Amino acid sequence: YNIKAGASSLIELMKFDMGGAGAVIGAARAISLLKPVNKEIHFIVASCENMISGNSVRPGDIIQASNGKTIEVNNTDAEGRLTLADGL
């Protein structure tokens, strides 16, 4: 079901959330096919599953990032930004 109901929600455009990670994966594939000599290359793709459950993050929740910093969730549509912050 659609948790972002309404004409202005643009839920069908949510697939654009993965554009950056998709570009990194595409670049990783292209570079792997080129097989550069004497180069060590690392790719980091921060990803998460956007799933509704009893354990979902709610506004006001406090979560802990991988570096130990705590984050108060004010916007539950920020999972991509939080995952990117952990990846960086």
Strand runs, count = 2
End-to-end Cα distance:
32 Å
Strand order of the largest sheet: 1-2
Number of helices: 2
Mean pLDDT: 77
Q: Overall 3D geometry?
A: elongated
Structural class: mainly alpha
Content of β-strand: 5-15%
In N-to-C order, the SSE pattern is: HEEH
| Helix content range | 25-40%
Low-confidence region ranges: none
Q: How many whole angstroms does the radius of gyration measure?
A: 17 Å
Q: Note the main sheet.
A: 2 strands, antiparallel
Give a description of the structure.
This protein has 88 residues and is mainly α. The protein has helices at residues 19-34, 79-87; strands spanning 62-64, 70-72. β1 and β2 form a beta hairpin. It is elongated. The two termini are 32 Å apart.
Summarize it.
The protein is mainly alpha-helical and 88 residues long. 28% of the residues lie in helices and 7% in strands.
Key traits:
mainly alpha; 2 helices; 88 residues; two-stranded antiparallel sheet
Question: Helices and strands in order, then pairings?
Answer:
Blueprint: H1 19-34, E1 62-64, E2 70-72, H2 79-87
Antiparallel strand pairs: 1-2
